[in-house]
Amino acid sequence: MWKQNQVTHDPEKIAQIEQQFAVGPFVAGLLLERGLGSKEELDSFLHPRPENLVDPFLMHDMHKAVDRIQTAIIEGQKITIYGDYDADGITSTAVMYETLVQLGADVHYYLPDRFIDGYGPNQAAYQKIITAGTQLIITVDNGVSGMAAITAAQTAGVDVIITDHHELPLNLPKAFAIVHPRHPAQPYPTAELAGVGVAFKVACALLDEVPQELLDLVAIGTVADLVPLTGENRMLVQFGLQALQQTQRLGLQALMRAAQITPQTVNEQKIGFTIAPRLNSLGRLESATPGVRLLTTLDETEATQIAAQTEKLNQKRQKLVEKITAAALEKLDAVSETHLVNVIAAPDWHEGVLGIVASRLVEKTGKPTLVLRIDADRKSAKGSGRSVEAFHLFKALDVHRKLFQSFGGHHMACGLSLDPEQLPMLQTALDEEAQKQKLELDQKGTLEIAAQLSLDEIDENLLADLKKLAPFGPENPQPVFAFKDYQLHGLRLLGQKQNHVKLTLTGKKTQIEALAFSIEDQRADLLQDAASIEFVGKIEENTWRGQTKPQILICDLADRQPAFLDLRTKRLTPQLFTKNGTYFFFNQRIQQKLAGYLPPAAVQVTGLESLPAEAEFSELIVVDCPPSLTELEQLLQTVSYTRLTAIFYPYKPVYEVGMPTRAQLARVYRFAITHENIDLKNQLQEVADYLKIRKELLTFTLQVFFEVGFVKIEKGLMTGCPAHQTVNLKEAPSYRSRQQLLQAEKVLLTSKTADLKKWLFQLSAV
Q: Which residues form the DDH domain (predicted)?
């Protein structure tokens, strides 16, 4: 659903922002809508400076953590950073590692193996670290859910400092220090820092400055973890993008070369869709440890080798995701649609990509989704969940912790494992929690439309203004526009699967290309009638061969007309009548024959006279071909609907036979007036053969002759009656009816789907 912005702003305030910050009126309005009203807020947003960053010591236990780390460095204690296997965890580990190396610490790092250690503190892994001589463990991007491992470490005399950003459980581990932006004892002004953001604040506190050289890593982890890009997060990403565009890190340079990225063009989108997925692929398929080496190495050969391996794993990851997503969708098709949350599991799915698969299923179904791999030998189902904005996944699962062998996560995502026998209970629990949270499923949700623009309003000045709102991300979304005053002048399908499309649009002065990706569900509609499709999208820059031009990235496509399904057929089958909708019949005989095949909840309407005034139907299914186009027009002008299904079954089709020719009419007339008492019941086929006319046409012709008095029929016997004056056969009721039916059948049964759809909706009241 698209929601057009209706907010109006004080013209004086808009003019003031335009003058003070050199932006156009449209962007000035967007700044106000994003809650930036004061000069200080606007200046911090549009011109962020390092001094605008928040004091790191405002975070809980920061003083305590810094003191303990400094003691460990002074005393030469062995420190191990315990990280995580995703992009946020990899960058968090690299930030903390480089900081401690700079301070002269005896520092090492350990990234848990997704398949052996699982998410978060693992007691066996901790014991291995401690046995190797570690005297201080610092977690990054994990820790608050590691009660058992941390308790064991502290009991063994090894302090644990937790730096984390995930949801806090009711009972926190008894760690030496918990550095967390949402700790209830001391909430930090930027509550939604990523794990790398928390690690970076520790680095700032330890170094007593803002380490600019770490900001490229901070940008990657922050964008990858999908935290809100507002306040300090946005500043960190903005600074980090500048650092990335001129990064001296050999590993990042090699990674960007392998991914065919020009460093100077790196933005938040290229982090989110290119850099972060490659880092994630390491921990998803093998070990994430090379990711830290990639980001911290000073050896160009090592950087190139790890980048190449990363690229290879990313390609493997893409193929796995595609395969498992297809299999998962098949499983979901077989599951009842009554569930509010998807819970799906199988024994042969690769555990490392289940989070991505869950995201794909959320996109496809609009439902929160958990995807798990069943390991029968270990009696464990382990996987990931992804949610929708309207459903707090962590809260829903947190109250059912007794079901799980392990669990952690936040509002939109989770990781968990449980006994496979508990899966039905998990499904029931999540459906109940969805009801408690009053989750209303809406596959696409509401898409906020910033404004409607004509194509000629899209120029370099607008692009420059929009860039001032970047970097974009959660809670600082890239504006989405609707478009007007354009003509469609070209459509091309792109990609190996032909599932992307490029549209060429022209305004009065401007030509712009619009791109839409993964349009499998709407490809047929686009090809049939692209002009009837409307779209909304984002305005971006496209640089090609040294030229930079605006382009539109399409976010959503919609048919300007109601949904249409073409089920035209000459043969009725039970499969045509499985939907609950309003079935309309022109012919009562067909309705009587089919009444028993329709679903119990279906509505049946026969004849125009049975329609209620101003009828509104969710789905209108027209079963049979109308006797005339006029009656179909009356139907479509009387009712409104959101979906039209056309079956148009021809009960007694005439379009294949047509109308009798003038010669045939004359031949039948001559025969009729020269014969008496023809037994139509027994001799009709014989007469048809004699006159060389199809039996159906002969029957029709005799009916017309009877109506105009050329023949009389008594007790099944026909006798001709010579005409004494000129008669216009076309005025006979049967002749008019057949002509009208013939016209209707030609239009409705033989036209192409796109032409039929266009013609029907031109007649409709909707």
A: 78-222
C-alpha span between 620 and 548 (Å, rounded): 48
pLDDT, one tens digit per residue, over 384-429 is 999 998 899 999 999 999 999 988 777 888 888 999 999 999 999 9
Full DSSP string of 591-604: HHHHGGGS-TT-EE
Buried/exposed 57-72: b ≥16 CB within 10 Å, e otherwise? eebbbbeebbebbeeb
Q: In sequence order, which residues have a C-beta less than 8 Å from that of residue 747 and are 6 or more positions away?
A: 629, 756, 759
For every residue of 209-239, DSSP letters joined together read S--GGGHHHHHHHHHHTT---SHHHHHHHHH
Domains of the chain by start residue, with CATH: 54-312 (3.90.1640.30), 335-436 (3.10.310.30), 447-559 (2.40.50.460), 563-651+746-763 (3.40.50), 662-731 (1.10.10)
Burial class for 320, CB neighbours closer than 10 Å (0-12, 13-18, 19+)? buried
Q: What is the DSSP track for 70-111?
A: HHHHHTT-EEEEE--SSHHHHHHHHHHHHHHHHTT-EEEEE-
Gap between the Cα atoms of 481 and 26, Å rounded:
12
- Side chain identity at 131, as an amino acid letter? T
Cα separation values, 717 from 462, 678, 680, 700, 712, Å: 85, 5, 6, 16, 8
Measured distance CA(577)–CA(645) in Å, rounded: 11
Query: Residue 447: beta bridge partners?
Result: 2
Evaluate if residue 267 carries a pLDDT over 60: yes
- CB 437, CB 390: distance < 8 Å: yes
pLDDT at 685: 94
- Is the per-residue pLDDT at 214 higher than 90? yes
How much is the pLDDT for 410?
78
- Candidates 289, 282, 284, 270; CA nearest to 309 is 282
Place of tokens 């039905």: 424
d(CA 223, CA 241) in angstroms, rounded, equals 10
| CA nearest to 275, candidates 323, 227, 307 | 307
pLDDT computed for residue 528 by the predictor: 61
Grouping H, G, I as helix, E, B as strand and the rest as coil, residue 553 is strand
Query: Is residue 671 within 8 Å of residue 687, measured between CB atoms?
Result: yes
| Strands across the sheet containing 717-720 | 678-679, 717-720, 711-714
The set of residues, in sequence order, having a beta carbon less than 8 Å from that of 511 and lying 6+ positions away, is 489, 504, 505
pTM here is 0.75
Nearest to 56 by CA among 162, 264, 208: 208
Nearest of 400, 434, 431, 433 to residue 418 by alpha carbon: 400
Contact 664, 751 (CB under 8 A): no
- Cis peptide bond upstream of 471, omega within 30: yes
Nearest to 202 by CA among 279, 103, 288, 109: 103
Query: Would you say residue 765 has pLDDT above 70?
Result: no
Comparing CA positions, the residue from 124, 119, 126 lying closest to residue 154 is 126
Closest CA to 587 of 607, 572, 603, 569: 607
Please tell me the distance from the alpha carbon of residue 646 to that of residue 568, in angstroms, as a whole number: 6
Sheet with 177-179: list strands edge to edge. 106-110, 78-82, 136-140, 159-163, 177-179
Q: Which helix (H) or strand (E) holds 138?
A: strand 136-140
Averaged pLDDT score across all residues of the chain: 91
pLDDT greater than 70 at residue 508: yes
Per the CB < 8 A criterion, the answer to whether 391 and 367 are in contact is: no
Strands, E, within 349-436: which ranges? 369-375, 380-386, 404-409, 413-418
Question: Please, are residues 22 and 465 in contact by the beta-carbon 8 Å criterion?
Answer: no
Percentage of the chain lying above the pLDDT 70 cut:
97
Which of these, 68, 73, 109, lies nearest to 92 by C-alpha position? Answer: 109
Contact 585, 607 (CB under 8 A): yes
